[in-house]
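Data availability (excerpt). The following record was deposited with the supplementary files.
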Amino acid sequence: MKKLLTLVSVGILTASSSFADDVSLTIYSGNFGLVKQTRSLEFQKGLGLIRFDEVASSIDPTSVHISPKSGGVSILEQNYQYDLVNTQKVMQRYLGEEIGILTENQTAHRGELMSFDGKYIILKSGSGEITITNAEQVVDYSFGALPDGLILRPTLVWLAEADKKQKSDCEVSYLTDGLGWHAEYVAVVDKDDKNLDLSGWVSIDNRSGATYKEASLKLVAGDVHRVRGDLRAPVPAAMDMYSAKGAPQFEEESFFEYHLYTLNRPATVADNEIKQLSLFPETKTAARKIYTIEEQYSGRRGIEGERKAKVSLEFDNTEKNNLGIPLPKGKLRVYKADSRGDLQFIGEDLIDHTPKDEKVRVFLGDAFDITSERKKIDVEDLGGGHRRETYEIKIKNHKDEGIEVVVVESVPGWREWRIRRSNIEFNKVSAYKVEFVVGAQSNDENTLTYTIEY
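Predicted structure:
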């Protein structure tokens, strides 16, 4: 349905505009969006003002661009009007003018509005009588007409000049705040913790002040730089989704240094709505369960004592593993069926933008039945700023199955160091970190002992 816009004349020349159905919406993960609308505008010869009033209230007016498809049309001036109607503004415009009010006890007053501060209304009648009424008791106001200068919705106004009367399709584009999206992933792990049924979703949060009907929808994943400060983060959707079936709805492509996801059908994105769409259908992905115990540090000295192992699931984002697509940043929730077949929530984590052929590790929580005890058992001062220390880390496995734990030891602030002795092979991860893989049989324990010199 096309809607006729009201236009203001300049001199004797007017122009008219009607809505077209072509709307394109690109939403960025930084909580802003690019809106493009194609509308058929009818230009009169000479000068005319065009009012364009179906725009987002969170628009960045400095980003607006209008491009007529036909020649002979020039845009001379652009204005953004946003002085919207509300009670306070109407009352301010009617100071010194006559209004009527009706209170909750059906008492009517009419007179010149002398004052309105949000709490009390002061009226002066024709006879000079002054009445003061509590604003909370007023149930109805009456005014002669809407004051000049107030509008019902944010409006763009252009001053255009055309060399002849003509119709022209015009593309209007602008950036607006209040549009955001984020990815959400749902994984169901199998009985043996070796495979995931993984599906991806996107949640679109529209708080821009406009509804985009049957829009061509695109999502941009990546950190796009903007000059101004960070915007409000989108609110997570208040619902969980267990799986998505069917063919993919989004087509993915590389775009500059980002990734672009295009929905293969039109979608309506309503104002003040969270819309959830399937990013990719459920796929089976091999995964690994990893137990990690990482040394905690206070300054340069490791903290001794007991701690539990952290449990994570890791999978490869590869075609061989039924993935191999760029995964946008988002929250990944993991579920598992209990002995009765009922799905139970077992943890969640945030993943960053992850390119294809990279690993994804999701931290789920602390392992209940795996603990460790760390202590320093020997210290030697070798002189000349050299020291030798021996540590003992005992892994206790209370599970009914054997496990392996990755023990991560940090060496912060030491310019030179070397492992002199270790009863378990180690991997030097970086200049400040070393890892050991410690196995422990079911309901048993194992002890890592190593000596470091620095």
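Summary of structural features: The longest helix spans residues 87-93.
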